[in-house]
Specification:
Structural class: mainly alpha
Order of helices and strands: HHHHHEEEHHHHHHHHH
Distance between the termini: 26 Å
Strand content: under 5%
Helix content: 55-70%
Shape: globular
Number of strands: 3
Radius of gyration: 21 Å
């Protein structure tokens, strides 16, 4: 008797290699947070591990949702989330100078996190129902551009530049994969380059403007706005090839590195685990993203291909922006490293992405047996 006959098909068809990979990344992140707290499970490691378990369970539940259901709820979900973003502007709770949350009493929701997902699903749904001949015409471009612009503008008002960029990036990658002419992206990039000076001087808030200016010259204010980037570079560089050793980091333990458990957790990790630890973590994320792109390649319909590619790209944006940020290659925009940084929002968003990807993957798998690997 074959092993696949002993295990129920819904369990056998789960991509266990991906689930184990996520547990490895999340478990390593919990170890890093344990060290960042000076060798204590409190206040970060315990709650991070608990949230990982809950969100991973949610991802497995979502994997059993029929793939066609995501297609059906894409546009309604986008509309509901857009209304929630408007409600944030009118009724939202303020925290840390930003108005990003809806306080429902028993829970505080951040609708912009859900918009990262529904932006991808809605754009994929739009191009799935659009006739192929219309994709390169104006009628195939302006509705998608409107889908992107409305939530991005609302999120910028909160203000949350990092999330607005991710929402925009998620929509644009769907447009590109759907077949929108490349010349429009080149023209848009040139227009953006011309608009950046105007945005820096007249659109961005003072702290956002300072982050952009300090990114270009962090040494201009090493003890002020540039302190985060400078200390992050010191922590990463001091780790060397193999790191200083577990619980031996000085930059984070002596509080030289701000936000060493959230946005700059990679610097905390690199100081103790070195270049080798950093490369292995990046390779693990690359395997996860590669699996997501393979799901896109195996999907049996246009919506599945676009949605899977967009969701995998969303995970890539999280990782790439955070790593560029902590290495001084991009302005600090508050994007955490998923499954590693302390906090539930990014962890929940990424694992919902994984859950939807597993659902789409199930639609592209044989009716029985084990799934394909990476």
């Amino acid at each position: 008797m074959k092993l696949s006959e002993l295990i129920p098909a819904p369990i056998a068809q789960l991509p266990w290699h991906v689930l184990l990979l996520i547990l490895a990344i999340g478990g390593f992140g919990t170890v890093v947070l344990f060290s960042a707290a000076g060798g204590s499970f409190l206040p970060w490691a315990w709650s991070q591990g608990l949230r990982l378990s809950v969100c991973l369970g949610l991802a497995i539940v979502l994997s059993w949702v029929p793939a066609r259901a995501w297609e059906a709820i894409a546009l309604p979900g986008y509309g509901i989330t857009l209304v929630a973003l408007v409600a944030v502007e009118l009724l939202g709770a303020v925290k840390g100078g930003s108005q990003r949350w809806l306080d429902l009493g028993f829970i505080r929701l951040q609708p912009s996190e859900f918009m990262k997902l529904f932006m991808v699903l809605a754009a994929a749904r739009f191009y799935a129902i659009l006739p192929a001949a219309e994709v390169r015409r104006f009628s195939g471009i302006w509705p998608a551009a409107g889908l992107i612009a409305m939530p991005a503008a609302l999120v910028m008002l909160q203000p949350d530049l990092g999330t607005a960029l991710m929402i925009t990036g998620g929509g644009l990658v769907i447009m590109f994969l759907a077949g929108v002419p490349l010349r429009l992206f080149i023209g848009g990039a040139l227009a953006l380059a011309l608009f950046i000076p105007i945005a820096v001087n007249y659109v961005l808030h003072d702290y956002q403007r300072n982050r952009v200016l300090i990114f270009m010259n962090p040494e201009a204010d090493p003890l002020g706005t540039g302190y985060h980037i400078s200390q992050s570079k010191i922590a990463i560089g001091s780790g060397g090839l193999f790191g200083k050793g577990f619980l031996q980091g000085t930059q984070s333990h002596l509080d030289y590195l701000p936000e060493g458990h959230t946005d700059f957790v990679f610097a905390t990790m690199a100081e103790e685990w070195g270049l080798v630890g950093g490369v292995l973590l990046i390779l693990a994320f690359m395997l996860l993203i590669r699996w997501g792109m393979n799901v896109a390649g195996r999907s049996p319909n246009r919506f599945g291909r676009l949605a899977a590619a967009g969701l995998a790209t969303t995970i890539f944006y999280y990782v790439a922006i955070n790593l560029m940020m902590v290495m001084g290659l991009a302005p600090v925009v508050g994007i955490p490293l998923p499954l590693v940084s302390f906090g539930g929002s990014a962890q929940m968003t990424v694992l919902i992405c994984v859950g939807i990807l597993m659902s789409l993957n199930r639609a592209g798998q044989p009716k029985s047996g084990f799934p394909r690997m990476f």
